[in-house]
């Protein structure tokens, strides 16, 4: 079956959630979106969902994303009749090793004096880049996305962490809110679905 999802005007992560739901029930899905972040989010979904991906810019600021399923969903036979939850997060069992995730929700550290907070967050990120083992993922949201942009005093350390294999997720909604779309210079633009999945699956979650 084929279907079309009109996700124009929807905030992150709604376009990727609607695309995920549609491709679970159809062989071919066309998703209409009005921002590049939604396009990239659906591109990553296509890899997870075993889909061919293509995108066409139909007009200025409007894209049609085509998903075509190429393989069966990775689901146990016993669950074939079960309804897939809207969000599926792999939570690490208590006592077992799992990802180490650092959450940066502000471009300052702590409350009180912002100048001191700026010094502290830069020191935290620099020290983090020197620790072993490194974290698996760094999540940046709200004002924390400002740490990953050009001219950020923490940018060099974040780039070093990314080069060392740390996955840096930068909230796309926050980037849009602060009008920083062309300024992100470390990590990759992400969405609330990926951020929630990462945080829920962490064995260790650090918030400076």
Structural features:
Hypothetical Protein Ychn, Chain: A; alpha/beta; elongated; five-stranded parallel β-sheet; 6 helices; 2 domains; 23% strand; Translation Initiation Factor IF3
Task: Give the termini distance in whole angstroms.
Answer: 48 Å
Q: Low-confidence segments, ≥5 residues, pLDDT <50?
A: 73-96
CATH topology of the largest domain: Hypothetical Protein Ychn, Chain: A
Helical run tally: 6
Quick check: average pLDDT?
85
- What is the helical fraction, as a range of percent? 25-40%
The gyration radius over C-alpha positions equals 19 Å
Strand fraction equals 15-25%
Largest sheet: 5 strands, parallel
CATH architecture of the largest domain: 3-Layer(aba) Sandwich
Shape: elongated
Structure description:
It is a single chain. This protein starts with a strand and ends with a strand. The strands form 2 sheets. Strands 8-7-6-5-9 form a 5-stranded parallel beta sheet. Strands 1-2-4-3 form a 4-stranded mixed beta sheet, with helices on one face. It has helices spanning 14-25, 36-48, 114-130, 155-163, 172-177, 192-200; strands spanning 2-6, 28-33, 51-59, 62-69, 100-104, 137-140, 167-171, 188-190, 204-206. The longest helix has 17 residues, at 114-130. The protein has 2 domains: 2-72, TusA-like domain (Translation Initiation Factor IF3, 2-Layer Sandwich); 100-206, 3-Layer(aba) Sandwich (Hypothetical Protein Ychn, Chain: A), CATH 3.40.1260.10. 32% of the residues lie in helices and 23% in strands. The protein is built from 6 helices and 9 strands. It is an alpha/beta fold and 208 residues long.
